[in-house]
């Protein structure tokens, strides 16, 4: 099957989205066209004009949704690693991208704070960063994700394998 599809990884900063996306890229690199849409990387290019207000976050997400839809309909596996904090925006993504799997990359906030590779939580808790998701801006957990991976309870490899199995069960692979 050569149909494209989208694996949308949503979760708090430092929950493990990028690590899982990298594992998925490695899994598919030899046999499929695959593209990663990492929130931090997209902000350096396509969304460099946007800040972190709710409106700007939604616009950032809509740009990623648009690109992901184009790629998936052209046979590419798209792995989106994006906090995407609002349920309404993720619902729009599922509506816009016909073959999409929403994966909640779940980790308790204290685990995310402990992992925090960029020191963002520390800065947000000190008041240096405003509108930080999970601290002073909400993260709305998915109510009906296609899959939940709990990165504080499983290895990245286990999470990747669960996602691949779920993609097979959904008929994407």
What does this structure look like?
With 173 residues, the protein is α/β, with parallel strands linked by helices. It has one domain (5-106, 138-169): P-loop containing nucleotide triphosphate hydrolases (Rossmann fold). It is 43% helix and 16% strand. The chain contains 7 helices and 5 strands, in the order βαβααβαβααβα. The protein has a 5-stranded parallel sheet, with helices on both faces. Helix 1 (17-28) crosses helix 7 (156-169) and helix 3 (54-73) runs parallel beside helix 4.
Keywords:
173 residues, alpha/beta, Rossmann fold, five-stranded parallel beta sheet, 7 helices, 43% helix, globular
Identify the CATH class.
Answer: Alpha Beta
Which percent range describes the beta-strand content? Answer: 15-25%
Give me the CATH architecture, please: 3-Layer(aba) Sandwich
Reported for the largest beta sheet, the result is: 5 strands, parallel
What is the fourth-level CATH superfamily? P-loop containing nucleotide triphosphate hydrolases
Number of strands: 5
Give the tally of structural domains: 1
- What is the SS-derived class? alpha/beta
């Amino acid at each position: 099957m050569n149909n494209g599809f989208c694996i949308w990884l949503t979760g708090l900063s430092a929950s493990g989205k990028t690590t899982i996306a990298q594992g998925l890229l490695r899994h598919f690199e030899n046999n499929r066209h695959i593209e990663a849409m990492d929130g931090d990387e997209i902000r350096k290019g396509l969304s460099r004009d946007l800040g972190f207000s709710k409106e700007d976050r939604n616009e950032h997400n809509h740009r990623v949704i648009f690109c992901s839809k184009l790629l998936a309909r052209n046979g590419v596996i798209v792995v989106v690693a994006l906090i995407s904090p609002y349920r309404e925006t993720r619902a729009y993504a599922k509506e816009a991208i016909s073959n999409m799997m929403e994966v909640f990359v779940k980790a308790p906030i204290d685990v995310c704070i402990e992992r925090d590779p960029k020191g963002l939580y520390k800065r947000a808790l000190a008041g240096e960063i405003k509108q930080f998701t999970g601290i002073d801006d909400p993260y709305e957990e998915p109510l009906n994700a296609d899959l939940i991976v709990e990165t504080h309870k499983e290895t990245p490899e286990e999470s990747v394998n669960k996602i691949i199995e779920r993609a097979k069960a959904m008929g994407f692979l």
